[in-house]
Amino acid sequence: MKRGQLRVYLGAAPGVGKTYKMLGEGQRRLARGTDVVVGFVETHGRPHTAAMLDGLEVVPRHILDHRGASFTEMDLDAVLARRPEVALVDELAHSNVPGSRNAKRWQDIEELLAAGIDVISAVNIQHLESINDVVEKITGVPQQETVPDRVVRAADQIELVDMTPEALRRRMAHGNVYAADKVDAALGNYFRVGNLSALRELALLWLADRVDAGLQQYRAQHDIDSTWEARERVVVALTGGPEGETLIRRAARIAARSAGGDLLAVHVARSDGLTGADPKRLAEQRNLVESLGGTYHQVVGDDVPAALLTFARAENATQLVLGGSRRSRLSALTGPGIGASTIRGSGDIDVHIVTHSQMGRGRLPRLRGSLSRRRKIQGFLLSILLQPILALALDLGGDRLNLTSDVLAFLLAVVVVALVGGLWPALVTAIGGSLVINFFFTPPTRTFTIAEVNNALALFIFILVATLVSSVVDRAARRTRQAARSAAESETLATLAGSVLRGETALPALLERVREAFGMTSACLMERVDDDELTEVWRPIASAGTPTCRRPEDGDAEIPGRDDLVLVLQGRQLAADERRLVGAFAAHAAALVDRARLSEAAAEAKPLAEADKLRTALLRAVGHDLRSPLASAKASVTSLRSADVEWSAEERAELLENADESLDRLSRLVDNLLDLSRLQAGVLPVFTRPMALDEVIPGVLGELGDDGQRVVVDIPHTLPLIEADPALIERVIANLVANALRYSPAGQGPLVTGSVLGDTVEIRVIDRGPGIPRAERDRVFAPFQRLGDTDNTVGVGLGLALARGLAEAMHGTVQPEDTPGGGLTMVIALPAATATDVPVPGARERSDGEQG
């Protein structure tokens, strides 16, 4: 079955018109003859939005009961049975009421899409998981309902519903978003101009990133290498020299001139060694780039200008920032520098040459040692040029020079040629020089005959010395080249390892760095999942770049990590030394896979161990603590039913009271056990709302019965509202007060009071009992622990553990303190509500539908 398509309307804040636009699209498709139904739309009483429902078929909602209240949700089964072409489902990030098939509405939408039904939905930028914390910092309002970014990014179409902050505030003031009695508070809190401007910018930038990812995918699919200046991307080239900080800051200013501009720093590690590169300075420059909001990359390339331009085009860069050459004027005569070569090949990429204080000062002394083809050609040309010039100069010297001087002059020429071109040009120079010396300067001259043995020995020694010198020079150059190559490889490995240690997602980060470093289009780690005599079945574990390989044969290079893992690269063939380096990466990737699987296995085993520990403690508790109230209740009931004894009215009442108290204690123990199990399983439902502490205390005292009369309550009237679940906070306070009553001396009941600390409300339960030693304070919050573990008649030790667990479920804490003068104080810290009557988008409201 063909999967349905998802269209999402993205807004910066409630009230911009997402639901109105969604319904408008539904009306347009209905008029076109498409089968459209409304799966779920919340109009919030907005007349313009409600009017857009006219003519659309609305699937009746499913009614669910939760905690004595009725809620309505989308009837997923009804929509699937109806099988429309298009379903309109509002509020993508909505959390379903407990008891629904799925916890989140986006999971309901996934089922509709899998059934081949197109879905149109809406969501606000504040509900995206990746920027949830940013929105909380901006608005001060935590968002309880979130949706993973991948769900929205996977949508076939995303349309931004945009509105200026001023226009949205006017809509609010006209009563088109919230009721009139809530407008003033909303405009002064969540809907301030600064908040709305920041949310609008977040929405625009998030959507721009998504559009940019789609553009890059399109360019890769159509093999487009030219730069499309849809967005400013500034690449700064770093050599590790002292001018790096100047270049980075200049590039950052260029990127900042364009809203949404990107800054990328790239360092090219040459296979013949990076001249003048200081690893410590490169690390400092990387930190500077990342502090300015940019990203750091490293590639390997023999041709630095070509490597820079390849990287810039792969990233669709529009501008390239280089530093002015540090070469001296004399060295500039040997050929164009990196800057000039980059400018010649830049094409439609703008190249900035930035001046700095190190220009023209030359580089640090180093061994060149390059044996490239270009160097060998230069050596042969120098040999051809030096020999006739030297012969002519020595011939003009005439009788003033002897054969020894002639031999030494040609030996110098051999050394010079060896330094430039290596062994073979030097050997050619040595042989040619020996022939020139023999013909022109060895008696008898103008012939190749040697009359004296001494002259023949001199020529032989000349050829031998020239050969040895050129061989030594060539070997030194080769060793220097190998050392430089090893340094470049070590630097690449150190950079990749550093990326993993800095906290990047290990395996994807490793593959991305390998792809960048070796100039590949994609890198994919594949695992063999089936291997028989006929076929091998492979599956990708992780990949970077496009396209993703499906089989090892699809790539240009296969590097085994181990028997069942292979690293597949696409883009070009690898040289032998490159394969060795990539082999280290493949082995590292295999180790990361093993470590991740071991971590997953350990994570899976930990809950089992905790559950086993809890089960053991529960069995012990059931074996004694739960049996005690059962035995007491049974004894009382058995006595009452006995026909052998005549019980007086007072004795009968006492037995009934004993049975009632035992059953109540048993009921509380079972409730605590069930709630603690739900907490540890992560399925305890929590619904927080702004509430006054005065709403809770009467319920707490009522639950304690006659013991509640001993409790002293002193709650200040100025105490702000707390953000809590009414039922859970009542259980927390009741458990702590019951614990305080158990250890309070007669005539001194516990005190319940409250205070404010910053944006937190602290509720204190104070007793004058024996207190808890500091060393025991963490242990008493563990399940099935009691102070001293000596009294088995007071419960199974769940009260404190449950109180702390429930408080943490409401984003609060429970901590013990010493009571001045002796005793224990339990401090419950809960977040204060940010507003008393302002609807909190995504928190208490079940939806944020819009109006036109």
Automatic annotation (TrEMBL):
Residues 621-834 form the Histidine kinase domain. GO terms for molecular function: ATP binding; phosphorelay sensor kinase activity. It catalyses: ATP + protein L-histidine = ADP + protein N-phospho-L-histidine. It holds the Pfam family HisKA. It is found in: Cell membrane; Membrane. SMART domains: HATPase_c, HisKA. It comes from the Bacteria. Its EC number is 2.7.13.3. It is a multi-pass membrane protein. InterPro entries: HATPase_C_sf, HATPase_dom, His_kinase_dom, HisK_dim/P_dom, HisK_dim/P_sf, Histidine_kinase_KdpD, KdpD_sf, KdpD_TM. GO terms for cellular component: cytoplasm; plasma membrane. The keyword Cytoplasm does not apply. The chain crosses the membrane at residues 377-396, 408-441, 453-473. Keywords: ATP-binding, Kinase, Membrane, Nucleotide-binding, Phosphoprotein, Transferase, Transmembrane, Transmembrane helix, Two-component regulatory system. This is histidine kinase.
